[in-house]
Structure formats: C-alpha cells, structure tokens
Amino acid sequence: MLRMMLTVFLATTTLSVWAAGGDFQNGTPGRSDLVWGAKFPNSPDEGVDPVVTSVMAPMAGVKKLGGFDELVPYVMPSPNQEDAGSCLYMSLTGMAEWWMARLNPAMSRVPGGPLDFSERYMMNMAGLDEATLPVKNWKTDSMLVFNETGQTVHNDVYRFTKGWYKSDEKGDYVQAQPEGVDAEYGAPYNWIRELDKIQSGYIALPKFEREVLFADPESNQWNVGIAPTDLVDRIKQVLVERKAPVHVLYNHYGYWHAVNIIGFNDQMDSQGCRFVEGMRDYMSEQPTKLRQRAAGAKDAKEKERLLKLAEKWDKTSRRLEDSYSAQGGCHAKGMFYVRDSLYEDPMGPMYDYDPSRVGEEAPYTKPIIFHEYDWVRYLVNHATQIYVK
Predict the structure, then answer these.
(1) What are the Cα distances from residue 247, in Å, to 75, 191, 256?
(2) 134, 200, 253, 357: which sits with the fewest CB atoms below 10 Å from its CB?
(3) What is the mean pLDDT of residues 196-217?
C-alpha cells in the first residue's frame, strides 16, 4: 500500500521545468527535472506522517553540470529508502561506493554492478558493539564503522530489501508471518539482522579518514540556524582541496536527514531557494496546527504532549527566522550538487527490493539533486568530510 501511494503521487508530480535562457555552464539549471520525494520519520518519536518536498535535478543524460562538478561522475544512485528511516546508512554506503568508484575508475558504475553495495549491511553492522567502538558521535563518526569491519558486501548478496515484519514488546522489528497479526510489508524489514546469511560477496574497503567541519555544540540533529556563517565557503573549499565529498545532517521539514554534498556551482540560479522557503512556511504553520489538535484532544496527556510539541516548533521556527534575517535571506545564486536517497528518477533504472515478489519495484533515486547554498546556511547542523589518504 505504501509503495502504491508513493508511486501514484510521485509519478503524477514529476515535472520538467525550463529555466528560461539557462544552461548549466552559464549558471542556471536549464532543462531540469522538478522531482518530488517523501521523507518519513526516522523513528516513532519524530512522528508518523511523511512530508513531501520537491527539488530541482539534472535531466537524464546531462553529463556536465558546470561549476565544480569533477566529483559527480563517481556517484552511484541509491534505492529509495521509503519508510526505513535509514538515511544515515544510505548516505554512508553511498560514500563508500563513491570512493571505490573514484579509486577504481575503470570499474562499471551501473546500478546492480560491482560497486553497488548493501545499505542493509551498514545498517546492521552499526548496531553491533564491536563495529562501533571508534564512534564517539554517531552524527560525525559513523563512517568509521567501515574501518572496523574493513569491508562491505555487494547488494546482490545482502539486499536492501522489503519483507514482513512487526514490532515486539521492546519496539524492535522482528520477522512476521505474511498477513499475520500486526504484520506489515516494507523497507523497515532491513533493520532485522540476518548477517549469518552472508557467505560470500565481501568487498575490501580503504581506510576512511574524516574531518569534522562543524558539529552542533548542542548535538541536536534537528537544529537549525546554528551553522557558522562561513560553512558554505568552508565546504566548497575542502571539496576542491581534497576532492572528496562532504557528509551533512540537516533538518528536513522537522525530520533529521543525512546526505552527501558532491560539488557546487556559484553561478547557478538558486530558483528562489525552493527548499528553504518551503521549510520556513512549513515551520511557521506547525505550531498553530498542533495547538488546534490539542484543543480537540480529549486525553489530558495527549493535549499536554501536543502543546509541548507546539512550543518546540515555535522555538525552532524562531531560530530559523533569526538566522534567515541575520544572513540576508534568500541569495540569488549558488547551488550544491547533492546525492540523496529520497527523490526517485522516473526515467531511471528500476530497483527490485524483493526478487521473490512482483510489484514492489521502484526507480532508483536521482544520482544528483540541487540544493541552494542557503540550505546549508540555515538548515545544516553537522558537516563532515570523508576522505582517503
């Protein structure tokens, strides 16, 4: 049912947009896709409903984006994470894929090829104590899990999949019988650890280094309006100097999200700061909606919960608006090239989550989307460059 709803919505809302007179080399997106994606909560604590957002992305076949784009050819697309709550591991697996492609430029980079690694493997290994010993702050250090394992595994061997699952009394996902009581079918199944099924397909990885460019002093993955005023320039600088992607966490319409920054273009039109302006509107609307729900709540504890949540949204919205005003609002120029796991490419190859079934297939996500520089200025709360010496 989830896939059916996503497919209908995303298929009917993907548009091609012409930026008049524009082209990538001269700074505007030119012929670009306006693509839509659904971000689900990372856990029940964040909420239950997805939020749908749109971004610009290069059309299929565009090879040269302009600006600093020399890292883009090594990007591998991601399966849509859907409601798995797995963005951290989609992005870090994508980082490992990028580095292996960069270090082995003659190897095929087609989806399903030799450099298509298992996101599920990273998800499951990150839950083991022996793999997370070097991780002091999961928001900046989780790539070091790969250094402990020294390897990953091919996606064909341990697939990012879908299956029947349910929650146990502790709230953990466990296997469920098809159509059983409380059973659901979907991507959260990936959190169920079945590492003993891996008999082959391991791939040795290089040792990864990392430089933390910014970590929120409050260690809050939902924080906004707290990035250093020079973070945009700092990210651009290290991208050029080390020629290595930057991993960031940011507030995505109330849910934290993780992606990789691959490049940038100073001259590209920011298209009215679509993401940031949408975020501002969304943030300002939520307190009123929550208080309306609280007014209609019959349960006292639920009323109290909703009112506290409204206060939290108020605080976050004010912080965003203060930063927005202090740093000059929406800037007309500048886009980052970003690898994400939300925005499907309707013209791209299909991903088969579960080869034992028919009907759950979906397009891979766009290899690259565009985010305005102001997205970093106002919404990013952690930034870490991952590199190999």
Answers:
(1) 14, 22, 13
(2) 200
(3) 97
CA atoms within 13 A on the CB side of 197: 12
Residues 6+ apart with CB under 8 A from 180: 164, 166
| C-alpha to C-alpha distance for 165 and 175, rounded to whole angstroms | 5
User: 33-43: buried (b, 16+ CB within 10 Å) or exposed (e) per residue?
Assistant: bbbbbbbbbbe
List CB contacts of 170: < 8 A, sequence separation 6 or more. none
With a cut of 80, say whether residue 9 has pLDDT above it: no
Among residues 135, 18, 36, which one has the least CA distance to residue 88? 135
- 353 close to 79: Cβ distance less than 8 angstroms: yes
Taking the C-alpha atoms of residue 319 and residue 121, their distance in angstroms, rounded to an integer, is 37
Selection from 285, 317, 272, 261 nearest residue 72 by Cα: 261
The arithmetic mean of pLDDT across residues 38-52, rounded, is 89
Q: What count of residues does the chain have? A: 389
Is the entire prediction scored with pTM above 0.85? yes
Q: How far apart are CA 159 and CA 356, in angstroms?
A: 12
CA–CA gap between residue 213 and residue 228 (Å, rounded): 10
- pLDDT tens digits along 363-382: 999 999 999 999 999 999 99
